[in-house]
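User: Can you predict the 3D structure for this chain?
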Amino acid sequence: MPISIEHWEARIGRRLRLRDLHVLLTAVQCGSMAKAARRLAVSQPAISKAIADLEHTLEVRLLDRGPQGIEPTVYGSALVRRGLAVFDELRQAVGEIEFIANPTAGEVRIGCNESLSAALLPAVIERLSVQHSGVTVQLSQMSRPITLEIQQLRERNVDLIIGRGIFPIPEDDLNAEVLFEEPLLVVVGAQSSWVRRRKLELAELVDAKWILYPPNEPPGLLVEQAFRLHGLAVPRSSVTTSSFQLRHALLMTSDYLTVVPECMLRVFNAKHLTVKSLPIDLGLQRRPVAVFTLKNRTLNPVAQIVIKCVRAVATTMLPQPRR
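Assistant: Here is the predicted structure, written as structure tokens:
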């Protein structure tokens, strides 16, 4: 039988060691005892003993061992889930102590995709460097839909995510603060022959030279949706890429078209005019950009400072009147 809460208070609270819990979390993340041993720079028997000690203390089996590696049991999954929260709270506590000792220093881990990293984070980091020079930003680049990336929050790999989401949010363990909304734009190089066209319909662009996204990525799905909403076939891709850098280089050298979020138009034209948007309505709703955090998880003071800077920079991304 699994232990009771009373059992925990009487005996187990004095015997369960954080080191053993850390070993279990590492083993589950690695998927094998051998990989965990290499990551922690200890012997494999030491890993096995730490987990065996945990199982003996809790009186349940935590891992199933098989030819493909290890998998947590239902008991192990529960302990891993809560264990991640334990270590996250300890990390947050250490961060708060460091902040109290030195209010200008600390680290925050941000998850963000390429376009928002390029459009938002340089100004955020510059603001931090002036106002809080000791703050360190650790960026995790994200490329999948937000519904998949939020697992990074749940596993405490990041403190916050800046991304585009679907609202209302179906997940009940998330907070989402919308910063601004932006459209997807059809863009070409500033010297493209398409720029001279004053009136354009999407149907006229079907046979053009398109730079498209991989079909399983959010922008690619939205481009397909736009053409189908207009009763059109999705155009043939001349180039398929996720790279905004390659996209920009191609737009400047040939008569390509592509679709980008409005924030990337600002990035492309930061130094001089290189890319222009075409007067095409894709028929898609503006997409909200938001800061995502976990409910019931107190953010350390440094993360709160960073979010404040993100809010300030985001005000510059609000839609501007068209001239």
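The chain has a mean pLDDT of 86. The CA atoms of residues 105 and 134 lie 4 Å apart.
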